[in-house]
C-alpha cells in the first residue's frame, strides 16, 4: 500500500469512518471523479470489508444535483441494482460505498463501444445473453420511484445550450481565443450549432412517443455497469432524474457492443413491456440515439471549458490543459456519431 496515497486520503478515510485500512489503490480513473479501492473496517460491517471512496470533481458538481444523485442511488441500492452507499460528506464532495466484486475474469466494460443510430450489421456476440441481463436492468430501473427532479430531453438541450453559449462568449472575450485549445473548442461548438434544426426534429420525434416520464439513469455505458452474481448493477447516478423512457435504452444501445440480433431483441423486448411509451416509440429510437451523442458532445465541451478556464481566465495548469485536450478529443469523436453528421 502506498503510504503517500494513504496520507493524501487520510482526511477522507477518517471522516468516512474507516479504520484499520490495509489496502488503498486507485481504481480506473474516469474523465471526471476520482475513485479508490479501500480495504478496512467500517461500522456498517462486522469485519474488514471492501469499499470505494469517490472524490467528486468540481467540474462534475457544476452539472450535477448531488442531493438527487444520492436519493436515486439509494433507491437503486434498496432494489438491488446498485452498491450500498454508507457515507456522504456534509458538503457532498466525497462518498463511501460498497465495493462489488464482479463475476468471472471479465469486466462489463469489455463491451464498451460507440454506435450511431444506424450501426453496421454485426453477427458477433461479445457477451452471450448480454441483452437479457441488460433488459433485466432496464426493467428494474424503470420501476424505481420516480425522482423528484424532472429534466425533460428538451430541457436538457436548453440547459446545455445556455451553458455552452456562455462559455463561447467567455472564450471569445479572452485574448487567448486564438489559442489552439480555444480554436478547437469553438470549432466543435460551431459544428453542434450547425445541427440546431436537425436537433429540433430529433426532440420532436422523441416527444411524439412519450406517455409519461420514469426513473432514468441517463448514463448506462459499460463503465457504469457491474456484473454481480449473474445480474447487473449500475453506478454513477450523477444524471439520474425523472425523464424520457427511451433515455436509458438509447444509452445502452449507443455504448454497448451487441450483435445486431441482440440489439434488436433488446429493443423489441423493452418496448413490448413499456407502458410509458406509445406506438411511435420504435420510430423514435434513431432520434433517441442521436440525442444521446448530441448530449455527449455537450458534456465533453462543458468539461473541456471548465478545465481550460479558472476564475474567468485561461488555466495554465498543465494537468488541466491535458484534461481539456482529452475532453475535446471526446467531443470530436462524439460529433461523428450523430446520425445527421455521419
From TrEMBL:
Stored Gene3D superfamilies: 3.90.1200.10, Phosphorylase Kinase, domain 1
Pfam families (UniProt xref): Choline_kinase
Classification via InterPro entries: CcrZ_PhaseVar_Mediator (IPR052077), Kinase-like_dom_sf (IPR011009)
Domain of life: Bacteria
Residue spans crossing the bilayer: none
Name of the protein described by the UniProt record: Aminoglycoside phosphotransferase
Organism: Shewanella piezotolerans (strain WP3 / JCM 13877)
